[in-house]
Amino acid sequence: MSNLSRRGALRLTAGIALSCTLSLAGCGRGDDTAATGTAKPIDESPATGTVNVWAAQGDADVLEKVIEPFKAANPDLTVKLTLIPNAEYYTKLQSAIAAGNGPDVAQFFPESQAQFLDSSILQRVPDGLVEPGAFFKSLWDAGVVKGVAYTVPWYAYTYALVYRSDLAKKAGVKAPATWDEMVPFLKALQGAGAGRGLGADIGWDIFNGQDVAMYAWQAGGSLLSSDRKWTLDTPAMVQALKFNASFFTSGVADTSGPTFLDAQPYFVAGKTASMITGPWVIGQLDTAAKKTGWTASHVATAPLPSGPSGSVSFSAGGSWGVLATSGNAAASWKLIRYISQPSTQVAQYKAYSSLPAVVSAWDDPAIKGQPLLDAFLTQLKNTQAFPQVSTWQQVATRLGKEMETVAKGKQTAEKAAASVQAYAESLGTGTG
Questions:
Q1: Beta strands 152-157 and 274-277: pairing type?
Q2: Distance (Å, rounded) from C-alpha 288 to C-alpha 274?
Q3: Based on CB atoms within 10 Å of each CB, which residue in 66, 177, 204, 399 is the most buried?
Q4: 107 and 319 in contact (C-beta within 8 Å)?
Q5: How distant, in Å, are the alpha carbons of 81, 144, 381, 388 from that of 385?
């Protein structure tokens, strides 16, 4: 599973101008079904005709193989899959939507899809197509606006603590359960021989912004009020900024490295001893170490340490939606229904290590037998969705920049929170 693709897609959306987002509203040419928020149930008859599917390169690279049984069971259906480089994906999709010639089915990212959740762009998920409660709640909620679901989750990921178990054993320490235990734990790993206790993300961008949003939740804060107003200049956000800065001011993390691409080599070499990261790392460390079995004997995972209000993280991954302009919506939804089945999501995991968005699929031996994934399952059950507004990506990017100033001692957490609040208010919440 590659995080490079996800980061590329998210980095792209962070730079999308609000005017571009607003220009999409009303550009769809769907029928009254999409506009009124009602949808006919999808029957069990065979799918027919042609379904054009667009997806970003990465997890979808194996989709043709994964849906072979569906195509065999629906011989009168043609599925045309177009894979688009992540750096171009949302741009091309937006252009196609604006021109009215998009695909039938498009892949989205739950953490950055808010700008598309509108009846002029996507059809609502038909009642009875899937069981909403079968998915991790925050992933399903990420596709729902004002009670209307527009996307169906496909694969899932979140962040957990990945650390050097050999160094923890040498230091005689266990994974931290609370914020207060985090820095002492990381210092102990340094004492056991690591250069730095934590390999922190130092991109100072949207991904750092997502991190501090996560910490704000852990401190009991929210990002958006119930009446859709930004709530970023709060004691919880100040606590979050200070908690993140503590990694750098205590010396357990370095503001100058490692970079994103260096994170795993540093970890394997002992230059760093932990990462707050996603599950894709687990399958890549043996490669970084150039030794089969290295991960099993050197690595452990744990849920994120709890802040004042718990250990909540954010949900992310992939999702599917049917465009309002689709000429074959019935077959499109039948395809999505198939992809959403637990057995299909297990097949996707076996083919690409994409972790299922359907909770029951985690009981499959192929996944349940991977102990390093347990922490991610625990964390996925305690996640929240980012604000479903079109300006969140821009706000998160600004939050990442403000984090840097606090971490480097150039600004107080209080001033950084106020700055982000002012910026977010200047943008508003768009059309989300």
A1: unpaired
A2: 15
A3: 399
A4: yes
A5: 28, 10, 12, 8
Burial 382-417 (b: 16+ CB within 10 A, else e): bbbbbbbbbbbbbbbbbbbbbbbbbbeeebebebbb
Q: What are the structure tokens assigned to 351, written together?
A: 């083919």
Q: How long, in residues, is the chain?
A: 432
152-157/316-322 β-pairing: antiparallel
> At 276, which amino acid appears?
I
Q: How far apart, in Å, are the Cα atoms of 303 and each of 306, 307, 376?
A: 9, 12, 7
Q: Give 353-388 pLDDT, tens digit per residue.
A: 999 999 999 999 999 999 999 999 999 999 999 998
- Tell me which DSSP letter residue 123 carries: P
pLDDT in tens, 91-109: 999 999 999 999 999 999 9
CB 59 within 8 A of CB 318: yes
DSSP string for 347-397: HHHHHH-PPBSBGGGGGSHHHHT-GGGHHHHHHHTSEEPPP-STTHHHHHH
- Amino acid of residue 414: E
300's CB contacts (< 8 A; 6+ apart) are 162, 163, 164, 165, 168, 175, 372
Q: What are phi and psi of 402, to 5 degrees?
A: -70, -35
185 and 197 Cβ atoms separated by less than 8 Å? yes
Q: 89 pLDDT band (50/70/90 cuts)? A: very high
φ/ψ (deg, to 5) at 6: -70, -40
Question: Going by DSSP bridges, is the β-strand pair 148-149/152-157 parallel, antiparallel, or unpaired?
Answer: unpaired
What residue type is assigned to position 184 of the chain? Answer: P
pTM beyond 0.85: the answer is yes
| Residue type at position 157 | Y
**Concatenated DSSP letters of 17-64:** -HHHHHHHTT-----HHHHHT--PPP-SSPP-EEEEEEEETTGGGGHH
21: Cβ contacts below 8 Å, ≥ 6 apart: 115, 390, 391, 430, 431
